[in-house]
Amino acid sequence: METTSHAVLAEGLTKRYGATCALDDFDLTVAPGTVQGLLGPNGAGKTTAVRILSTLLRPDGGRALVAGHDVAKDPRRVRRHIGLVGQNAALDEAVTGRRNLILFGRLFHLDKRRAARRADELLERFDLVEAADRGVRQYSGGMRRRLDLAASMILAPTVLFLDEPTTGLDPRARNEVWEAVRSLLAGGTAVLLTTQYLDEADKLADRVAVLDRGRKIADDTPDRLKRELGGDRIEVVVREAAHLQPALRVLALVTEAGGEPLVDAEERRVTAPVEDRVAALTHVARVCREEGIAIEDIGVRRPTLDEVFLRLTGHRAHEGDPDPTTPARPDPSADPGGRGDPSAPPDPSAPSGKEVAHR
Ligand SMILES: Nc1ncnc2c1ncn2[C@@H]1O[C@H](COP(=O)(O)OP(=O)(O)OP(=O)(O)O)[C@@H](O)[C@H]1O
Ligand SMILES: [Mg+2]
Question: Its family (predicted)?
């Protein structure tokens, strides 16, 4: 075993598929007990990075240590210390939630009693006690994803890989999954979470790496990333054009240093960059009411992933995407690392079929 204080340490990882460079000289460090976000649009290389780090795919270049073990030289050891929740669930629909967890425990060589005890602990931890004896077929999307998370935690992994854990979930279910991920951190697990949602990375991650066509183009805390990108903007739509100028003066009170309020007369909208979104919103709403400025709509808007991309790269997230009518992944068998982890989903590289989140 090589010693390292990092849960994940990757240096110069590279993976090519023909002319496509799926991952290009990718470096990453993840500290124990933290969440590292990996943010990028379809085809950015997120799943490729996760598959290499979870030993399912061999890189063409570079090296990576996960839980202190080299993914290429010692994949078995790595697998003992990781959990993986892929883009597709690995659950048995025909049996109950509790039974699923017991089956996973047995797969990991726990005896019957220990498997049952671990299942109960995890049901409790992921708030599934009430649903434990119902068939998974009856579970909501959020419950399934939580059960998936529980299954990946059977052996209390040092590093957990979550590949787009909230894709396709409604806002309530996303919140449930976020809560579940937060609860993992208490146990010291390091999480590498891929997402196409800026707000998800913002809510969960201690640090966020942004991927663009296989290249890492930023790696920072969500706050610093957003600050660098201009951050939150307050938007006010006034009922009458005559109120535009007074509203502009109110917004000037909360505009962040160096920023400038803007007017869109046609939409009767004024906007301004702000530092503290809640303080700005409450202050503007109060002062407008006091001054008799009739507001039709008010809100604070966070930058979308598209805006992040535009600022970082000068091009839109979807510009130059491959033609969706041509198969993006012609070679699903390219898997020389083998698939020793029974918690691995059927195909974590399967396309999610989801677009970048727009507000
Ligand atoms: N087995 C494969 N054969 C050929 N090309 C592949 C293969 N796997 C991935 N690619 C290509 O590598 C690039 C990165 O794909 P990857 O699946 O890592 O992206 P992603 O960021 O996970 O995207 P998504 O958000 O759609 O899941 C894409 O251009 C993809 O088409
Ligand atoms: Mg993917």
Answer: Belongs to the ABC transporter superfamily. Drug exporter-1 (DrugE1) (TC 3.A.1.105) family.
pLDDT at 124 over 60: yes
Residue with tokens 């530092």: 275
Please choose from 13, 15, 20, 88 the residue to mutate so as to test ligand 1's pocket, defined by most ligand atoms within 8 A of CB: 20
Cα-only R_g, the chain: 23
Instruction: Work out which ligand 1 atom sits closest to the CA atom of 47.
Output: 22
Q: Indicate which atom in ligand 1 lies nearest the CA of residue 349.
A: 17
Pairing of strands 233-238, 295-301: antiparallel
Supply the pTM of this predicted model: 0.73
The answer to whether 62 and 14 are in contact (CB under 8 A) is yes
Per the rule left: phi > 0, alpha: psi between -120 and 50, beta: everything else, 348 is: alpha
Domains of the chain as residue ranges with CATH? 8-81+157-225+321-349 (3.40.50.300), 230-302 (3.30.70.100)
pLDDT digits (tens, 9 = 90+) for 136-186: 999 988 888 889 988 988 888 999 999 998 887 888 888 888 888 888 787
Pairing state of beta strands 233-238 and 269-273? antiparallel
